[in-house]
Amino acid sequence: MKRLLLIACLISAPAFAQNVLIKNATVHTAGTRGTLKNTDVLVQGGIIRAIGNNLSAPGIVSVDAKGKSLTPGLFAGLGDIGLEEVSAESSTVDGTFRLNDGAGGQMRPEFDVVPAFNPNSMLIPVTRLEGFTFTALSANAGSSLLGGQGAIMRLNGNFEDPIGSRILFASMGSGADSLSGSSRAAQFMLLDQAIREARGLSPYDYRQSLLTPAGREAMNKFLLGGRTVFNVERASDILQVLKFAKKNGMRPIIVGGSEAWQVAAQLKADNVIVFVDALENLPSSFDKIGARLDNAALLQKAGVRVGLFRADDASQNARKVRQVAGNAVSNGMSWEAGLAAITSVPADAFGVGDKVGRIDVGLIADLVLWNGDPLEVNAFAEQVWMSGSAMPMKSRQTELRDRYMADDNGLPRAYQK
Amino acid sequence: MRKSSLIATVAMLSFSIAASGKSTGNPSPGPATDPYPSTYQRISSAPVLIRNATVLTGTGERIDNADVLMRDGKIAAVGKNLDASGNTTVVDGTGKWVTPGIIDAHSHLGVYPSPGVSAHEDGNELTNPATPNVWAEHSVWPQDQGFATALAGGVTSLLVLPGSGNLIGGRGVVLKNVYGRAYQDMKFPGAPHSIKMACGENPKRVYGSKGSSPSTRMGNVAGYRAAFIDAKGYMKTWDKYNAGGKEKGEEPTQDLRLETLAGVMRGDIQVQIHCYRADEMMLMIDLAKEFNFKIASFHHAVEAYKIAQPLAENNICASMWADWWGFKMEALDGIQENIAMVDRKKNSCAIVHSDSSEGIQRLNQEAAKVTARASALGMNGSPENAMRWLSLNPAKALGIDKVTGTLEEGKMADVVLWNGTPFSVYAKAEKVYVDGALLFDINNKKLQPTSDFMLGQGANP
Description:
The complex is a heterodimer of chains A (417) and B (461). Chain A has 11 helices and 16 strands. Chain A has 417 residues and is of the alpha/beta class. Chain A is globular, with a radius of gyration of 23 Å. By secondary structure, chain B is of the alpha/beta class. Helices cover 25% and strands 20% of the residues of chain B. Chain B is built from 11 helices and 16 strands. In chain B, strands 1, 2, 3, 4, 5, 14, 15 and 16 form an 8-stranded mixed beta sheet that branches. An 8-stranded mixed beta sheet of chain B has the order 6-7-8-9-10-11-12-13, with helices on both faces. The chains are: A alpha/beta (417), B alpha/beta (461). Chains A and B meet through helix 8 and helix 11 of A and helix 9 of B.
């Protein structure tokens, strides 16, 4: 009976053991302090309380990192973790809102994906055990250029609210042509109309209104400081977005940016953060003729703040973001910038840099200990902590693996637990 | 520009690749020769000696501080302190690694090229669920920039397959990764054709949504069986005609659909089956037994780890990704140890494949992911073992392992010089040789090919 009790305690331990002292790590802060060798990190109450040498804290579990790399929990990119299980099964997919009236009709910026988020999604442990602790839940373009709103969600599997404010998602360029009467020029015309409506410059009873009353309210938030993600690839489109955003007082984040290197100076001048996929180097569409492997490196060189994400299979295989970062470094980005591009830069871009994305005193203790170079494909996470709690390094995939790795015990595999 | 010595040409012509070893020597039904023959000619080159590198032979061996000599398009020798005679180009391999060229067992380059515009969607003939009559090579656009980026990733040969929308999608073609004006210039000399078949969700979705058969998995199987039963009849007709002696009678009419399936049953065509789930792969093994053909490889095979033993026992390769999963139901049980768990069985044939214009550029990185997982669980994650997943094993699945896929003497000099271990995110193919000719050099812009499409667009000044 006692033994059972002990086991029960161990199992539920992560829920309250939010104190830990990680000793002797190579601490990659992803912040101004860079990399600190042989350094200790003290976590109390789920928050990073101290970073230094020879820290001690009586009564707190201590972990010897033996010099291994400790990073902030990584950014799993912009995707639909928790919003979809199996991409091809529409009954499990909630990241896209489609109205029946389709192209050229209403825009519903008030659509918010957050209520659909399922913290029990099987994708969360799969992603988290690879060192990823936060993601940008995205609203994809459905029947309008404006996909709706998303938010930054931590991947602790708890029923809790996102951190930070809502983010608006807009899709521009050839990918969204079918949503703007077959011309990308009309994308700006339509957005302009929506903004006029949000500002009350269009009569409420105008028959061809794009926005509902709730939509006007929602849209207004993104004219008054809210951040808008523009999915856009072509250099000329990026410039138009910058111009449009400036004119309307919007705060743009460029996502995609295959040709961003061509307009690096303007991005730098406008202080706009760009998310690129460092694996994209083919002219897979006419919007990506200029795609190249050193896009991230060229942007960094020009002083642009670069985030990294994976464009394809961004939900189930979000863990590939780490490989994206490794390739960005392999193609000329500095290692520190590569790490920042999947930690502090996304945190800052989405306005949650005061909570996650760095190892710094006062931030949430979402930490990862690695068995090698955190950006290397043949290294992996040994332990992930969220709010200082050691997360179970298990997922549906490790359980499948263990079931089929086990020796045959004479019974069908269904009996292997 | 391409010149090839007479000797090399003759050598190539005389190479008969016993693809499956099953060829009976009987006359095939229909025309015996390929009406679209390879016009590939190796580019001539002075001998090349790479000195003092870490060499992974592709056979599972690693030789430190070794030399690799290429001459007349062939591997002339691998060993220590080899001699460089007269006109040999010597390359210092100190601190670098040498491997066989990577072979991708599953590509759609050329048939789904970049840019991916509607005019280029040539990989799936979705007008009939069984189209063994179509040949992927007739869709290959040789100006796909993807060939160039794959070459930069060390890929020297690839199997271009039709898509998986049909039960029987058509014939695939093995290409040398060397640009040509037409695909015949790239066609791997002497390589057997492959056939692409597909299990599961794709065919039943494509045809079910049109209100035609198949709309279920049982419909899928009925479809394969009906096609092979047809082909058996066709084979019989031709066998009878060929055995007819003086009273041969009229030559039977050639049927492109049945000719391909007869070629499968005769062992002349490598069978490549897109199949994710373990149970469906077991079903396809029974289908192969029913119609007496051999499966070269299952492709994608995300559940291969569940049936690693039967795959090894049946001599069937599994061409797999390192980590793709979950995008559809049949891919739900993908795990990161899949390749390692297939590999650990005796007589197994694990392959890292791409099915992607991005993945084909980084097959070494995909393999590196697997080595880490393998080592962590006490399986063989050594570089020399992992190299087999990228060269020898895919060569086997494609039926070209007698002539390429390892650094054994006499094989094609398809060779990559890496800046260090290939199994790293920081690895770069510095030099790529195809048949002994240096066709990619990371430090020489003149040896970095670009397709016609890229010109005049200021893409990469």
